[in-house]
Amino acid sequence: MEKEQIHSLLQRTRTLGTFLDPENRAKRKEELEQRRLDPAYWDDSDAAQITEKEIAVEKGWLDAWDDVRTIAENIETLQLMASEEGADLADEIEAEVHTLEPLLDELELKSLLSAPDDHRDAIVTINPGAGGTESQDWAAMLVRMYTRWGERNGYTVQLLEYQDGEVAGIKSASLAIRGEFAYGYLKSESGVHRLVRISPFDSSGRRHTSFSSVFVYPEIDDTIEIDIRPDQLEMQTFRSGGKGGQNVNKVETGVRLIWSGSLSDGRAERVVAECTEERSQLQNRERALTMLKSRIYQLELEIQEAAKNAVEGSKKKIEWGSQIRSYVFQPYTMVNDHRTETKLTDVQSVMDGELDEFIKAFLMQEAT
Fold first, then answer.
1. Residues with Cβ < 8 Å from 89, sequence gap 6 or more?
2. Pick from 84, 111, 138: which residue ends a domain?
3. Distance from the CA of 220 to the CA of which of 53, 108, 227, 273 falls in 20 to 30 A?
């Protein structure tokens, strides 16, 4: 590897270190850990768990930075030894560089997640568009894609709601993807996803275009207050048609919550959330309520973002409800993100959860 490339890599490391400010992160971690010394720390288990999560986040940043910094220092030391002692350490330097590059890339990408809710868990809701069985099958393929992405990246994936289609696929589904910065990464997936393929449901073998919408919003916790009055809330129960076993199909365990109220800008809104995958109606109600509050919270975030953009005089592209990505299976294979013009020809890998290039391109575009 050329000296200029190594110099550039080390410069990127120094720049990232300045941006991450590990000294202040270490102080913040220490302050949080001091709370553990309070004998009443675990009396409020919800608050304690939030603190523990914050500690884990700061520790994750510091550990990742230490790994990157240590390897960068090793490279500088080897370069110095080669210069002063005339030793041939090119192979050792190259090995350290190959170790550093992916770690630095990953940490740089993570550093782009600086929005207030980026650290939160994500709820992903998928609905087929017009097109009947073809679109419903496409929606089910997207459920699998996001499940695979979550599993590949070490996240916990929970199916919250799943309604089977009449012939194949789904009428709707919701996933909770939990882990560090799940929402920060997945927020790039909100919008309409378009599929072009020869339909397996068309006996004539014609090519079909299908659409499904994906909505991603942060899962709220006890640090966020969402006030829902009883008179604004309607609850419906029904027999679940999902994959929860015999009990959910024989008893009305499925819960649908409907909120009718006004947002902070005075706009009347109707928000629906349902959960079918828990074994009891109470569990489904609790989960549906969290989903409902999370959706209301997301609507309020959009109002704040619109107000900020109006003040700044910018016209930020709204991705909600717009076509963000096309997946072409025939006559050629291509996945094209229309926002960043990122293109990949290995469609199967994308459908198996390889979304990181799209996510990275989106976050870098947002950052600039």
1. 78, 79, 81, 82
2. 111
3. 108
Q: Which own/partner pairs from 281-285 qualify as long-range (CB within 8 Å, at least 24 positions apart)?
A: 281/237, 281/251, 281/252, 281/253, 281/254, 281/255, 284/253, 284/254, 284/255, 285/235, 285/255, 285/257
> Is it the case that residue 90 has pLDDT exceeding 60?
yes
Same domain, residue pair 12 and 100? yes
- DSSP states of 70-90: HHHHHHHHHHHHHHHH----H
Residue 241's SS3 state is: coil
Instruction: Quote the percentage of the chain above a pLDDT of 90.
Output: 64
Q: Is the dihedral of CA 346, 119, 116, 297 positive or negative?
A: positive
Q: Give domain status of residue 116, yes or no.
A: no
Q: Is the pLDDT of residue 215 over 80?
A: yes
In this prediction, residue 109 has a pLDDT band, given cuts at 50, 70 and 90, of confident
Dihedral pair phi/psi, residue 137, rounded to 5°: -65, -40
CATH number of the domain that 104 lies in? 1.20.58.410
CB 23 within 8 A of CB 66: no
Identify each DSSP E strand in the chain by its residue range. Answer: 122-128, 156-164, 170-178, 191-198, 207-218, 233-238, 254-262, 268-275, 323-328, 334-337, 342-344
Residue 248: pLDDT band by 50, 70, 90 thresholds? Answer: very low
Please count the structural domains in the chain.
3
Q: Is the pLDDT of residue 317 over 60?
A: no
Q: What 3-state class would DSSP assign to 194?
A: strand
Q: How far is CA 185 from CA 18, 22, 357, 358, in A?
A: 23, 22, 11, 10
Q: State residue 188's pLDDT score.
A: 93
Tell me if 48 sits within 8 A of 42, measured CB to CB.
yes
